[in-house]
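Suppose you are handed only two things: the residues of a chain and a line of SMILES describing zinc ion. What would the bound structure be? This form records exactly that question and the answer produced for it, so the two can be stored side by side and reused later without any lookup.

QUESTION INPUTS
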Amino acid sequence: MEFKTADFAPTNGNRISNFSFDEIGDDHFYTGLETPMKSDAFEMSDLEKKEKISDLFAQIMDVMGLDLTDDSLKGTPNRVAKMYIEEIFSGLNPANKPKIALFENKYQYNQMLVEKNITFYSNCEHHFVPIIGQAHIAYVSSGKVIGLSKLNRIVQYYAKRPQVQERLTNQIAMELKAILNTEDIAVIIDAKHLCVSSRGVKDDTSATVTSYYSGVFEKPHKIAELQNYLNQ
Ligand SMILES: [Zn+2]
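ANSWER OUTPUT
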């Protein structure tokens, strides 16, 4: 991709819904449920990706004037490349999706199951700085149950992508619906965006809450019951 000086100038021709990128600024629009990926996203091996990212990150550091011969800095491009592919963006690759086994609902438990305070670390796709938060998940079994640690793994898989919080919330909900074969799903995410707290408007105390409710969780008394569990 080639950048033009105009892309960084105060105004440019790129617009979403009649707003220019400048007007949108830090308002974190997103365009859909699926993470926008190129069709050839996985033609390159992870090893090739790491080598390429390392070269490119070294160029970024070089442009900023950092001395890459310094002992403290010279390993950074490799470390960043490894971290991107193997850790913080590993959820882009479907090969890393957790394998989920379901069990018969032997106890005939037919009330909501709530797994709360699932801590996750993600990254804002608009600034590539951390989003740190907690996810709360609830579902009512349609006959199968899922291992509790697997709920956590699903959250971590989708968090390990460049994300926006609304999409993260919806992607987790869609995955749970598909796996558990039920509409009775709730996902609530409460997160702090470092692009808001450490830069831009520098608001250190605000948090963003997003939610997805479907099936029985669209009923006000079920939402109230869930909120009650979350507040305990
Ligand atoms: Zn951001």
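WHAT STANDS OUT: Residues 28, 124, 126-127, 193, 195 surround zinc ion (CB under 6 Å). The helical segments are 21-24, 46-63, 76-88, 148-159, 165-180, 194-197, 220-231.
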